[in-house]
């Protein structure tokens, strides 16, 4: 799988690239130093984008919006020194699948990437500590179709894209989402992503 690392700090990017390729031999890392370069490098092989919010040609979360619009099905994990809960929440609402603070050590970064590559969600403790805990059903059991819908939601896909990906009507997707929210004890897409992170759900495509 191709991982696209988008960061304008060359030394950091080189270190992260080497770390990722050493720990995940199945991944090939490409580097982009700007949003424009990142959009040009996105292709059908790209499975994951590691995205810095401090790019020279994008203003913060604008980069998440641009990558999501350009590649609706790619997973986006934000790398940022700004791990305030409001920043993390905004990134998720714009379609990020995870968020890793830049100040995290290499062990935590590897754990985050491992979880993401297995279909999980990685969020910083700053958000999990301040976000109200969900109250899921005693045994959170989702049907295969509900798991499909939740997986695509965690990947940042809109309802329209979920409909297209699964061949479902908008009303069916809405019904499945309502059931997922109910079982997770949440009321929104962002809360569902946070709940999935807390519960350690693995949502890889079959």
From TrEMBL:
PROSITE patterns, A to Z: HTH_LUXR_2, RESPONSE_REGULATORY
Residue ranges of domain HTH luxR-type in the record: 135-200
Residues modified as 4-aspartylphosphate: 52
Entry keyword Signal: no
Matching Gene3D superfamilies: 3.40.50.2300, Winged helix-like DNA-binding domain superfamily/Winged helix DNA-binding domain
Top-level taxon: Bacteria
Pfam families: GerE, Response_reg
Transmembrane segments: none
Domain Response regulatory: 2-117
Keyword annotations of the record: DNA-binding, Phosphoprotein
Protein name: Response regulator
Species of the source: Pelomonas candidula
Lineage: Bacteria, Pseudomonadati, Pseudomonadota, Betaproteobacteria, Burkholderiales
């Amino acid at each position: 799988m191709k991982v696209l690392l988008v960061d304008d700090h060359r030394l950091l990017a080189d270190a992260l690239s080497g770390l990722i390729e050493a720990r995940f031999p199945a991944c090939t890392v490409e580097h982009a130093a700007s949003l424009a370069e990142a959009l040009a490098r996105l292709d059908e092989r790209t499975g994951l984008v590691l995205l810095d919010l401090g790019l020279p040609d994008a203003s913060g979360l604008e980069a998440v919006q641009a990558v999501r619009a350009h590649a609706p099905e790619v997973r986006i994990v934000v790398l940022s020194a700004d791990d305030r809960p409001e920043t993390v929440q905004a990134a998720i609402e714009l379609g990020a699948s995870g968020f890793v603070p830049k100040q995290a050590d290499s062990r935590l970064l590897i754990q985050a990437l491992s979880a993401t590559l297995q279909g999980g969600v990685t969020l910083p403790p700053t958000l999990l500590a301040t976000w109200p805990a969900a109250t899921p059903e005693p045994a959170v059991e989702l049907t295969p179709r509900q798991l499909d819908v939740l997986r695509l939601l965690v990947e940042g896909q809109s309802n329209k894209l979920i409909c297209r990906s699964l061949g479902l009507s908008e009303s069916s997707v809405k019904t499945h989402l309502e059931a997922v929210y109910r079982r997770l004890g949440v009321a929104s897409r962002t809360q569902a992503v946070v709940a999935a992170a807390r519960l350690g759900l693995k949502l890889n495509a079959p």
